[in-house]
Amino acid sequence: MGSSEMAVMASQGVSHGLCLLCISLFSLCSGDDSPLSQLRQSVFFGYDKNVIPQKDGTESAPLGVHLGLAPSWMDLDSNGVLTAILWLRLTWSDYRLSWDPEDHENITSLLMTPDELWKPDVSLYNKQDLHHGILAADPRSANTNAH
Predict the structure, then answer these.
(1) Which residues pair with 39 in a beta bridge?
(2) What average pLDDT does range 110-129 have in this prediction?
(3) Which helix (H) or strand (E) is 10 found in, with range?
(4) CA-to-CA dists, residue 28 to 15, 19, 32, 43, 44, angstroms
(5) Can you give the pLDDT at residue 33?
(6) Phi, psi for residue 18 in degrees, rounded to 5
(7) What is the largest CA-CA distance in the chain?
(8) CB 128 within 8 A of CB 121
(9) Angle made by CA atoms 79, 84, 90, in degrees to the nearest 5
(10) Whole-number Å distance between alpha carbons of 56 and 93
(11) 66 touches 90 (CB < 8 A)
(12) Distance CA 71, CA 79 (A)
């Protein structure tokens, strides 16, 4: 076998390898085509979790956020300081996360993680600030581990 034949075989091997690489990359990029995946792609297309869900922007009525508290432990010390551990439940409606089930094989629910969604800003106010002896109105002085 001559050097020119070996060069042709080597270039064919490289081109076959590139074709396999391209096919592999295409299959990775095309993603899952299951109904749930298609619904998720449709719902989150253009979704910005940093924008409050109001259809008409500043012209919209204020977004209704409902609050529910469920204390699991509370302590009131002799200085009148209340320490509590509680569950906080917030509910609201984000119109951008809606779809017509008939367009998506009658799927009516979709699970997603909280970090993918817009969430209302929640801060603790009127907390006894033991370091300054005042009622805190500055959220930076609040001693919480809420996320």
Answers:
(1) none
(2) 78
(3) helix 3-30
(4) 20, 14, 9, 21, 19
(5) 86
(6) -65, -40
(7) 96
(8) no
(9) 140
(10) 15
(11) yes
(12) 21
